[in-house]
Design brief:
The complex is a heterodimer of chains A (799) and B (184). With 799 residues, chain A is mainly beta. Helix content of chain A is 7%, strand content 54%. Chain A has 2 domains: 2-100, Immunoglobulin-like (Sandwich); 225-798, TonB-dependent receptor, beta-barrel domain (Maltoporin, Chain A). The two termini of chain A are 26 Å apart. Chain B is an alpha+beta fold. Helix content of chain B is 15%, strand content 39%. Chain B contains 3 helices and 10 strands. In chain B, strands 1, 2, 3, 4, 5, 7 and 8 form a 7-stranded antiparallel β-sheet that branches. A 3-stranded antiparallel β-sheet of chain B has the order 6-9-10, with no helix packed on it. Chain B is globular. In chain B, 34% of the residues are buried. The chains are: A mainly beta (799), B alpha+beta (184).
Chain lengths: 799, 184
């Protein structure tokens, strides 16, 4: 492709050769990265065949040229040969810049591309490609769960929502390839719409320090990055296949990358996962199958001084929700809690019936950057996301095959970033963002909208500076401002509108009054300021101390503002509040890290104080013809979370290693002085790993996961009269399940398949002892046990 | 140069996409199709006597208002009544008959009758599904001696059929309505 362009340019320049041919071209060949002069570079004028070599200082001069446009080819032992188009007129001077050190360049490009603004003053917890591959058949949440301080709020075993230091949903921002995911993340039963196999590097920042992407991550930020492509001629790929006994399904994923020395590259990736009903040790978990299809394609052109990338990904997932979790009234809930087995158990099937979720997420991103000399790197990104969520419920009659919820969320974002380095010590990143979001709940569902129609406009700007005081001390400070405007149309039930006194408080919002409902038009404005300051100090070669304070400010999400109705999977009525203001979190975290081959560790204590923390709690029981339901209302309070995450690793020998993790978090509602709901119980993971240094890379590991019982929880139990029993029952929705201990085994060995390809074979067993347990952070724990033993066979072919 | 053009194109296309937001359409009201707002049980005496109706109506569904429960009068001691249950969705105009849907999906539904302590009545199924198991949108109620107490109708979706009662029926509760009735 490029060669043709060169030829065309070349031909067109020949025709220009005519008159005056005593001009010259002089200048220097310069390293693009550090402006140093390159001696010993060869310069060939392709039209005339003239060749010169630069002197020690990189200078050159070519005489007897005509006043015309020439193509000159510059080569250097450590550089990629580059052609330049030069217009000669008289004695012309021009400096020719080369990209020096091919290998080094790759690294720089990688660093430049890696969203290095993650944070320099919070220890980042990262999962590498190798670690991620072990979770190939699972979800993003499963993989994140393996990091200390990260847990997950589950709905069954396929909807896994990451939780950082006790916080989740809208409080955790997920950045997928530089794009903030907008996938109705507010719902606690909505898992992130990312295929784990499209991620090659996953980073967790336990704080709101990544201000480039968001200022509202009260809990933290998860950054998923795709494979980095080196600037060289290459074609490579991999295929991963996993077969699992539990769920009787398979997962297959393939990835292929083609790159060119010119900087062009393409990566194509696709995944197919299909599982039937999963099994607890004692019974089938009816309707828990899943069917995931996803693909992504990335095309780009990458140079040090400029680059361009187009990325598109499609993620489609059908997830069955445990049949026994869809309930009628409160008595069903009482029956479910009192029974040690799910109330509905059917035979194994691959069919995904109701209730189920069917989610499709499109993400398209265009990004370009250019390095301006003396200014810095300017990047512009536009991204578009469409999230379509269909939820099918147990319904009757003609509605049986209609979704009970049909939401379409479209988001457009524009980001302009400038990364400057005024001197060696100071790095400043700044930018502006604009976004537009529209939510469309389809009224054809025949069910009142859970999330109303709205349009949201956002405008933000940020500035982050890092300053290297000396070799040991690094300082970081940043700020961000966000403006949000929400334009909402919502039908409220007249009875609810009046019971909340909204008819007196917000009469101006009503635009139409019907027989059972009022149509309202709320317009909400939020101004949010967030900031971060921090420092990193190196104590000798092995130890490092991190300190970070970050203030995050989050506008309430649509569920918190507008919920008003029955949530079937929880058998409760959830009510939002129109008057909520932004939630403001102040998080202080510190880390002591030791980095050494033999013994390394990190200790990360933190305190997170959140003003205006929005909690959902039971307040009442509501009677309907379907029985009575508990009513849960969102409330704003002041919360405080504190805890510590510990990681340690000790090598007994070059082959044997012991890894330890410990996480503790305590969360309290400071207004009522009660514990917060859904705080992860104290847990510890210990693992012995044998990793052979031989070419077969034999790896064996035995892991023990122990989760304590959560002893601090709010008492949300309530009493209800059950007419069928003629008695009043206490509905125990609060008591956490007992502690549990799980053993997991993992092994892998690499075999050379052909000259250029390697086959890695792995066998692993999770829940080796087939332990029956329930997880406090699984929303379906009232209804069924968690997964039983699972045998997995992994095959990976690198080519 | 090339990058410049690409950037310009990107900005332009983004601006275009952002600007083509549509007009402010007011969303249409959702017609709730499945909600059961009203249950009416009609008790017609075999032979002479007064017809009794038991009605529970909750027009705001899962909204904050409680159902309005009315019982037209006391049952007569010793009388056998033919009972029938009608379910309505009154948020629709005209009101939609939900009983028809339940009877069409008879294999997946069953009514249960719970007689509270103190009340001397007995209830028996009077209609059955296509497999011959109990359905119960029709029933026979025999009033015993003078007494009073609670009478509860429960509709289960996807119960285990046949069953011996609510305890081993399983399934999910579609409806549970209780009436305070008396026999005089």
């Amino acid at each position: 492709m490029h060669k043709y362009i060169l030829w065309i340019l070349l031909c067109s320049s020949i025709s220009a050769i005519s008159q005056n041919c005593d001009s010259s071209l002089s200048g220097a060949v310069i390293d693009l990265h550090d402006d140093s002069n390159l001696g010993g570079a060869t310069i060939i004028v392709t039209d005339t065949g003239q060749a010169v070599v630069t002197d020690f200082d990189g200078n050159f001069i070519i005489s007897n040229l005509c006043d015309a446009t020439y193509i000159v080819e510059v080569s250097h032992p450590y550089c990629e040969t580059t052609a330049f188009k030069v217009k000669v007129s008289g004695n012309t001077r021009k400096n020719l810049k080369l990209e020096h050190h091919l290998e080094e360049l790759n690294q720089i490009t990688v660093l430049g591309k890696a969203y290095s603004v993650k944070s320099k003053t919070i220890l980042e917890n990262t999962l590498t490609q190798q670690e991620l591959e072990r979770y190939s058949s699972g979800t993003l949440g499963d993989a994140l769960n393996s990091l200390s301080g990260v847990s997950s709020l589950n709905t069954g075993n396929t909807v896994v929502k990451p939780m950082i230091n006790g916080l989740h949903s809208s409080r955790v921002a997920i950045i997928n390839n530089g794009v903030r995911m907008q996938d109705q993340e507010w719902g606690s039963e909505h898992a992130p719409n990312i295929d784990i196999n499209s991620v090659s590097n996953l980073t967790v920042i336990k704080g709101a320090a990544a201000l480039q992407y968001s200022g509202d991550a009260v809990g933290g930020v998860i950054v998923a990055e795709a494979l980095k492509v080196p600037v060289k001629d290459s074609l490579y790929g991999k295929t991963l296949f996993t077969g699992a006994s539990n769920g009787r399904g398979t997962s297959t994923t393939s990835q292929l990358t083609k790159s060119y020395q010119t900087g062009w590259f393409t990566t194509v990736q696709g995944t197919l996962k299909r599982f039937g009903d999963f099994e607890a040790p004692d019974y089938n978990l009816s309707n828990t199958g899943m069917f995931e299809r996803s693909m992504s394609i990335n095309v780009g052109f990458n140079r040090f001084s400029y680059g361009f990338e187009a990325y598109y990904s499609l993620f489609k997932n059908e997830i069955g929700i445990l049949r026994a979790s869809h309930l009628g009234g409160v008595w069903d809930l009482v029956r479910a809690i009192e029974s040690d087995k799910p109330l509905i158990i059917k035979d194994f099937t691959y069919t995904i019936n109701v209730p189920r979720q069917d989610v499709t997420h499109h993400l398209a991103r265009l990004k370009g950057f250019k390095n301006f000399e003396g200014v810095g790197k300017l990047s512009l990104q536009y991204d578009y996301q469409q999230n379509e969520r269909l939820e099918y419920d147990v319904r009757r009659g003609d509605d049986k095959y209609k979704p009970a919820m049909d939401l379409q969320l479209d988001t457009h974002s524009l980001l302009l970033d400038l990364d400057t380095q005024p001197n060696d010590e100071l790095n400043v990143k700044s930018g502006i963002t604009a976004n537009y979001q529209k939510n469309f709940p389809d009224p054809n569902t025949g069910v009142r909208r859970l999330i109303p129609d709205y349009k949201k406009y956002g405008l933000g700007t940020y500035l982050i500076a890092t300053y290297k005081w000396n070799d040991a001390l690094l300082l970081e400070a940043g700020g961000r401002y966000d403006f949000t405007y929400m334009d909402v149309y919502k039908y409220y039930r007249t009875s609810f509108w009046e019971s909340r006194n909204y008819d007196e408080r917000y009469p101006e919002l009503v635009i139409e009054e019907g027989s059972y409902e009022v149509l309202t038009h709320p317009e909400l404005y939020f101004n949010n300021v967030s900031a971060t300051v921090g420092a990193t100090y190196a104590l000798g070669e092995k130890h490092k101390v991190y300190f970070n304070y970050s203030m995050a400010s989050r506008a309430p999400n649509p569920a918190e503002l507008f919920s008003e109705g029955l949530h079937h999977s929880a058998a409760r009525i959830e009510l939002g509040d129109l008057s909520f203001h932004s939630e403001i979190g102040h998080k202080i975290s510190m880390t002591l890290e030791r980095h050494h081959e033999k013994f390394s560790f990190s200790i990360q204590p933190f305190v997170n104080k959140v003003d205006g923390f929005i909690v959902l709690e039971p307040v009442d029981v509501n009677f309907t013809l379907s029985g009575s339901f508990s009513v849960w209302e969102y409330r704003q309070t002041d919360a405080q979370l504190l805890g510590v995450d510990v990681d340690a690793s000790y090598a007994f020998s070059s082959d044997f290693r012991f890894n330890h993790q410990f996480s503790l978090v305590k969360g309290y509602d400071r207004t009522l002085d009660i514990p917060l709901i859904h705080m992860p119980p104290v847990n510890t993971t210990n693992e012995i790993v044998y990793q052979s240094q031989e070419p077969n890379k034999l790896r064996l590991s035995l892991q023990s996961v122990y989760a304590f019982r959560q002893n601090e929880y709010p008492n949300n139990n309530f009493e209800v009269y059950v007419p069928e029993l003629g008695e009043t029952k206490v509905v125990d929705v609060s008591t956490p399940p007992d502690a549990y201990h799980l053993l997991n085994f993992n092994s892998s060995i690499a075999v050379k398949a052909t000259e250029k390809s390697t086959l890695t074979v792995g066998v692993s067993v999770t829940n080796v002892m087939d332990t029956s347990y329930r997880n406090y952070l699984n929303r379906l724990r009232y209804y069924a046990d968690d997964l039983g033993r699972n045998f997995l066979l992994n095959l990976k072919l690198n080519y | 140069m090339k990058t410049g053009k690409l950037l310009a194109t990107a900005i332009l296309s983004a601006a275009l996409l952002m600007s083509c937001s549509d007009d402010d359409d007011i969303p249409e009201e959702v017609h709730e199709e499945e909600v059961i707002t009203t249950l009416i049980a009609t008790l017609t005496p075999q032979g002479q006597g007064t017809e009794i109706t038991l009605e529970s109506q909750d027009l705001d569904g899962d909204g904050p208002n409680d159902p309005v429960v009315t019982v037209s009068g006391p049952l007569a001691a010793g009388v056998v009544y033919d009972g029938s249950i009608k379910l309505w969705n009154e948020t629709e105009d005209p009101a939609e008959d939900i009983t028809e849907e339940v009877e069409e999906e008879d294999l997946e539904h069953q009514f249960f009758y719970t007689v509270g302590s103190g009340l001397d009545v007995s209830v028996a199924y009077a209609n059955f599904d296509t497999a011959g198991d109990n359905l119960g949108t029709e029933f026979t109620l025999t009033a015993g001696a003078a007494s009073s107490g609670a009478l509860t109708f429960t509709l289960r979706h996807e119960p285990t059929k046949p069953n011996t009662g609510l305890e081993d029926a399983g399934g999910g509760t579609d409806i549970t309505v209780t009436f305070d009735v008396s026999v005089e």
